[in-house]
# Entry
Amino acid sequence: MAIRVAVDAMGGDHAPGVVIEGALRAVCESEGRLHVLLYGPEDVLRLALKAYPESPHISVVHAPQVIGMGDSPVAAVRAKPRSSIHCGLMGHKEGRADAFLSAGNTGATVAASLFVLGRLPGVFRPSLPSCYPTTEGACTILDVGSNMDSKPEHLLQFAKMGSAYARIISDIAKPRIGLLSVGEEPGKGNELVRTTHELLVNAIDLNFIGNVEGRDILHHRADVVVCDGFVGNVVLKLGESITTALPSMIGQELQRLTTELSVMQTIEQMFTGLKRRFDPEEYGGGSPLLGVEGEVFILHGSSSARAIERCLLMAARAAKLDLTGAIRRALSP
# Structure
């Protein structure tokens, strides 16, 4: 039986066209193992679909309201109960879909997920992880921005959810958990980090390897790096800048050294490959919202059709492997 994924077809800067294109690419790639339900105003979606080949694996579900990227998240969720986000999540909750995906208003998606699906038992705060490129593939960092002010018990849960996520999605039997700090020694870091370190040391169900520093991330010292959302977002945005700043710096040096054209072209090809490593599309296109009672995936508003395609396939895989169930078991006493 095909995995069914509900999609906020009106979410994102280029919706619904890019969302539809990504959905069609995903169902084609899945060879009948995926069915996508597009949520949005039916007349708008039917008109947009005319530009693409028909597919028996694409369905349209009417959702007359749309939450804009600039809308206040909580206010929009309350004022627009028939939005594509809300209706898609209801479809997931009521069993008509196995997962939900949106490239729309992130705050509204998180708020609606909490309202419609609720938290898993015992979860303090849901968390957004992100894959970060390393010399050995990619590691998982969480949180990367959904929780700016965290407590030690929150970071402990992030570690448990991140470990379950790495086992299911990355197929790592015993993910190495590292706590991001300013030094490897247990006593290093601020009060949040020091107290969290004590909790992680005593968490016998985790493969905790101790503190890791920022310089350890790219060398893949840990499979899962835990931090609060403020720090995690800084790390994430710093990584994004590498693909633009580093080529520019090296280009300046090459010009200064009057390097031959053939050498410059080779280096340019090298940086094309480096840029690909930092491309979110290489690691699923989006991120799951860990800790809610369902499979919810969130993408950036500027996501391309390829990002939608990759994230849809990842959402289908998460649903098939029961990522939410794995997290529930990881958090059980």
Remarks:
- Residues 229-256 form the longest helix (28 residues).
- The longest strand covers residues 34-40.
- The chain is about 45% helix and 15% strand.
- The radius of gyration is 21 Å.
